[in-house]
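quick one before i forget lol
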Amino acid sequence: MSTFPEQQLTDFAGRVVVVTGGSRGLGRSMVEAFARCGADVVVASRKLPSCEATATEVAEATGRRILPVACHVGHWDQCDALVEATYAEFGRCDVLVNNAGSSPLYPSLVEVSPELFDKTMATNLRGTFRLSAAFGSRMVADGGGCIVNVSSISASAPTEVEAIYGAAKAGVHSLTESFARAYGPTVRVNCLQPGPFLTDISTHWPESAHEGFRQRLALQRAGEADEIVGAALYLASDAASFTTGSVLKVDGGAVYGTG
């Protein structure tokens, strides 16, 4: 452990970090940052080729061990397989980042199918629960660790097209508090709450969306993917040793409550 808290922010030498949804977007930025800070990283997402490409590029750039694992977090058995693959390769997990998520479109609320509802809940909420339980229990047995969940501005200010997604992400806030109490004092559990970010998904946004950001956000713009890194490193680092059960907004200054 580094001597000073400010050094601890970027000291992940000897640690193993698992990032779901790690092959693109915010997850990819976090994978790169943890590796630059000395961690070995497990890159998990649904498509193995994407994980493998990310792992190769990050390993070459940082010299760290990067393990690609295909995992659909909405499937209970694949969550368990991710845990086993991590411990088989590294023998430990120090930080879990539950970043994977999806927000499928639907024509109207009344036309939402049971399948779409269950799929959205599974990816955004059930996977977070299972991975937190499976990794977290092992962290407790090993004497410590950290879980960082990723929710969304939709958890507090959902639109009509984010009813299910917003409800699932609000559930992530609840899980954050539950697991912080269940696995404290040795394991800390916190949550990042991002606003709009310019990831690959944002290429489909209409110009009206950006005009909305200029009107509603204090910073008047969407974030760049790398702008999630500072908050993620803080919550995962020893510098946040007295922070658990918290939700940290990284949203450009959107105006809404803290639910």
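fyi The first strand starts at residue 16 and ends at 20.
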